[in-house]
Automatic annotation (TrEMBL):
It is found in: Membrane. It comes from Winogradskyella marincola. Keywords: Membrane, Transmembrane, Transmembrane helix, Transport. It is a multi-pass membrane protein. This is MFS transporter. The lineage of its organism: Bacteria, Pseudomonadati, Bacteroidota, Flavobacteriia, Flavobacteriales. The chain crosses the membrane at residues 12-36, 48-68, 80-97, 103-121, 141-162, 182-200, 241-259, 302-323, 335-354, 360-380, 392-412, 424-444. The keyword Phosphoprotein does not apply.
Length: 456
C-alpha cells in the first residue's frame, strides 16, 4: 500500500495520546518511590517493589502487539481500541494509587497501573510505523518524543505546583500528602482526555487484503509459537539495538526507582525519616518526625521538579530534530550515540550537584531520553516486516524490561554496592551504563537503519 505523506498536525494528532501516557509514566517514575518511602519502605527495598513495572511490560506488550496486529474494527481500526481500554484502566489506577493504606497495596496498584499504561503505549509505537511512509518515520517518532517531553515536564512539576497553590505537603505517619493525591488525580484526567483526542482525530489504514487478513486470523497458530518463531527470526539489527536498549533502560530504571532516595539524601540532605528511630508516643519525637518528614516531602517535590527538566530538554531536543528531519535525513546511529554520552555525563555530575545545579544534570539526561524514545524505534522500523510491526515492537520491549527486571532483583543494589553504601552511587552506575550503551551504537552497520535510503 502506498502511504501518503502526512502533514505535521496529522502526525501531531496521532501522537497526542502519548501526552497522557507520559503523564502516567512521569508521575509513576518521579513519585512512586516517594509513596513507597512514605509507607515505610527502606531504600534497599525500593528496586524490588518496582519489579511490577518491567514484569508487566514483558508480559503485556508482546500480547497486545500480537492482538493488535490481528485486530480490525470498522470504526476504531487496529490500534485505537487498545489505546482506549488502556486509558480507562490507567486513569482509575492513577487516581487511587496515592490513597494506598499499606505498602503492599501501593505495590499492587503499580502492577495495575503499569499493565494498563502498557496496553495503551505499545500500539502507539506500531501506529507510527503503520501510518507513515518510511521516509517520515524518524520525523514521526521525534514528534512523539516532543509530546512525551511536554508530558514529562508538566507531570513532574505537578506536586510542586499544587503545593505552591496551597495544597499541603504535610501528612501523618504512613499517609501520602494531599499535594501528591491532587497531582495524581490531574494526571488521571489528562491521561483519559488525551487518548480520547487521538482516538477521535485519527484514522487507520485497513488491511490491504481483507479476505487474506481474515484467513490469517483464523489460522490455528498459537500466540506462544508465533512469539518463539519471531524471536528466533529477529533481524540482526534488532538484536544489536537490543544490546543498546539493555544498558539504556538499566540506567533509566535506576533513576526512576532510586533518584528520590539518592538525591533527597545526597543533594538536599533531607533523607526520609525512619519510623523505628522515633517513639511517636513521645511528643518531642513526634514533632521531630513531623519536621523531618515535611522536609523530606518538600525536597521530594524539588527532586520531582528537577526531574521534569529532563522532559523539557528532551522536548527541546525533539523539536530541533522535528525541524531538521522534516526536510533532511540524519545519521541515527551517531545522534543516538552522542546523546547517550551526554546523558551519562548528567548522571555522573550528580555526585557534585547542589540543589541549584541539579537541574543541569537532568538537562543532559533529557538529551539521552529524547533520543532513546525515537532513534531506536526509527532504526527498528526500517528493519522488520511491516505486517508484524506490532509483534516486533512488542518483542523489542523485551530489551527494555529484561534489564529492569535484573536491576529490580538486586542488580542495582549489587553494582552500586561495589562503589560503597551511599545512595548516590546508584546514579553513578546509571551514568556508566549510559556510556556503555552509547559505545554499543558502533555495532549498528545496516545502512537503511542508520539513515533511510530513498528508493528513487
Amino acid at each position: 500500500m502506498k502511504k501518503r505523506i502526512l502533514g505535521f498536525w496529522e502526525i501531531w494528532n496521532m501522537s497526542f495520546g502519548f501526552l497522557g501516557i507520559q503523564f502516567g509514566f512521569a508521575l509513576q517514575g518521579g513519585f512512586m518511590s516517594r509513596i513507597f518511602q512514605t509507607l515505610g519502605a527502606g531504600k534497599d527495598e525500593i528496586p524490588l517493589l518496582w519489579i511490577a513495572a518491567p514484569l508487566t511490560g514483558l508480559l503485556v506488550q508482546p500480547i497486545i502487539g500480537y492482538m493488535s496486529d490481528r485486530t480490525w474494527h470498522s470504526r476504531f481500526g487496529r490500534r485505537r481500541p487498545y489505546f482506549l481500554i488502556g486509558a480507562i484502566l490507567s486513569s482509575i489506577a492513577l487516581f487511587f494509587v496515592p490513597y494506598s493504606p499499606a505498602l503492599w497495596v501501593a505495590a499492587g496498584f503499580l502492577w495495575i497501573l503499569d499493565a494498563s499504561i502498557n496496553v495503551s503505549m505499545e500500539p502507539f509505537r506500531a501506529l507510527v510505523a503503520d501510518k507513515l511512509h518510511e521516509s517520515q518515520r524518524t520525523y514521526g517518532f521525534v514528534v512523539q518524543t516532543l509530546i512525551i517531553g511536554i508530558g514529562t515536564w508538566v507531570a513532574s512539576n505537578l506536586p510542586w505546583l499544587v503545593s505552591k497553590m496551597g495544597v499541603s505537603d504535610s501528612a501523618d505517619l504512613g499517609v501520602v500528602p494531599d499535594s501528591v493525591k491532587v497531582a495524581f488525580a490531574i494526571g488521571a484526567f489528562v491521561f483519559l482526555l488525551s487518548i480520547l483526542y487521538t482516538v477521535f482525530t485519527t484514522t487507520e489504514y485497513p488491511p490491504e487484503d481483507m479476505e487474506a487478513f481474515e484467513r490469517e486470523k483464523k489460522e490455528k497458530n498459537s500466540f506462544v509459537s508465533d512469539i518463539i518463531n519471531n524471536v528466533g527470526n529477529m533481524p540482526i539489527t534488532m538484536k544489536k539495538l537490543g544490546v543498546i536498549q539493555f544498558f539504556s533502560w538499566f540506567a533509566f530504571f535506576t533513576m526512576w526507582s532510586l533518584a528520590n532516595p539518592a538525591l533527597t539524601e545526597h543533594v538536599f540532605e533531607t533523607p526520609a525519616p525512619v519510623e523505628a528511630n522515633f517513639d511517636m508516643s513521645v511528643p518531642a519525637d513526634k514533632e521531630a518526625y513531623d519536621i523531618a518528614n515535611t522536609a523530606f516531602q518538600k525536597s521530594s517535590n524539588l527532586v520531582g521538579s528537577a526531574m521534569g527538566v529532563y522532559g523539557l530538554s528532551s522536548m527541546a531536543f525533539a523539536l530541533l530534530l522535528v525541524l531538521y528531519t522534516s526536510k533532511r535525513r540524519i545519521n541515527r546511529k551517531y545522534v543516538h550515540m552522542f546523546s547517550l554520552f551526554l546523558g551519562g555525563a548528567g548522571f555522573l555530575f550528580m555526585n557534585y550537584a547542589s540543589p541549584e545545579s541539579l537541574k543541569y544534570c537532568f538537562l543532559l539526561i533529557g538529551l539521552a531520553w529524547g533520543s532513546i524514545l525515537s532513534m531506536p524505534y526509527a532504526m527498528l522500523s526500517s528493519s522488520v516486516d511491516p505486517k508484524r510491526m506490532g509483534m516486533f515492537m512488542g518483542i523489542f520491549n523485551m530489551f527494555i524490561v529484561i534489564p529492569q527486571i535484573i536491576a529490580a532483583l538486586g542488580g542495582i543494589n549489587f553494582v552500586s554496592g561495589l562503589l560503597g553504601e551511599q545512595a548516590i552511587n546508584a546514579m553513578t552506575v546509571a551514568g556508566l551504563s549510559l556510556v556503555i550503551a552509547g559505545l554499543c551504537n558502533l555495532l549498528i552497520t545496516n545502512r537503511s537503519a542508520i539513515s533511510y535510503q530513498s528508493e528513487n
